[in-house]
Amino acid sequence: MSITIVIFEKESDTRAVIEGYLAEKEDVVIDNIFDDYNSGVRYVKENKPDIAFFSMTSDKNICYKMIKRLSEFGVNVVVLSEDYTTSSIIQALRYGAKDFVSKPVIKKDLLSSVDKCSQHEVKAMKKSQIVAVYSNKGGVGKTAVASNLAVELSKLTRDKVALVDLNMPIGDVTTFLDVKPSIDISEIVNKADVDNKTFIQEACCKYKDTSLYVLAEPQNIEQSRTLTPKQVVKLFDCLRKAFSYIIVDMGTNVDKLNMSILEHSDFILLVTVINLPLIRNCQRCLDLFKGLNFPDDKTKIVVNRYLENDEITVDDVEKALKKKVYWKLPNNYYTMMSSINKGIPVSEVNENSNITESFTQLASKITEDMFEQDLK
Ligand SMILES: Nc1ncnc2c1ncn2[C@@H]1O[C@H](COP(=O)(O)OP(=O)(O)O)[C@@H](O)[C@H]1O
Ligand SMILES: [Mg+2]
After folding, report:
1. What is the pTM (predicted TM-score) of this model?
2. N or C: fewer beta carbons within 10 Å in the chain?
3. Whether residues 183 and 322 fall in one domain
């Protein structure tokens, strides 16, 4: 089946260049080209092409609104722009773009964005991904990372995302996002027939008008205590049927239950902050995971509360852990505290803060890495 493309471009020279490059791809059909963007948006709504190449104009705000609308129609939007600073790329992704190509357009970049968009469909149908957010110490930011990452993932991908509180017996995901689910994990694991996708989605609490769903820890502390590794496997099987991404907030225990959660996850975000005792703990976790035969690249080190001029550098951390740091989240006490106190994600406190940007970029990096891993 051929891939249909609509182009939004006001410069005739660039239009010709894009057409020329795309002509080399046999499976691509250029469906229509617009210099009047409003007509283009109407056309895309009616005709639902696979990809829209959208060239930014000087009126960025109008462009972002259009990108958002186009992606809401279910079209893969590739943004073309002369401004390819990180913040400009992030903005485009935040409004739903699937990819970003810098201008003047290079053939390799343009064609690879077509591949990326077409692979997306195939990839999305493959196995869903479970990300466990863990540390054997409390207070490092696990819940902050799990909840904000889940929000950003749902915004970025528009796929169904579940945020699951497995920090037993008393989790705080529901407080971080100020939701009051009526059903919790125990009802899923205790129900015999849970092969029903609708039941699972209904059991989770939809977060505002996003594609994020929250599943709370058992309300009854006794039920938390008796949750078994076998039930966790059952829970994960159910969730995989209904969600593309499952983010698990965890407690700190090094017990059978937590090891089973980690074992059955696809990615582990091992959260730490930079100080000696915590780095040592991180090292212990890595040794433990090695002993459990987890693949080395399954665990990703996330440094939280990162400060530029810290006495201990990321280089030191990497040397001590003999492992690359996957992501650094900046220390932003004010935004984070305000987010927790109000029960809203950091993006709602301040969309332009460094911590919000960092979570958006983390969500984008993690989906890219998942797709790559999924293709292997
Ligand atoms: N990036 C950050 N910048 C500043 N403060 C943070 C950051 N991440 C977390 N915190 C603070 O650390 C505290 C613990 O975070 P939390 O997510 O509850 O940790 P955990 O779940 O690991 O126990 C919170 O009070 C939060 O305000
Ligand atoms: Mg927590």
Report:
1. 0.76
2. C
3. yes
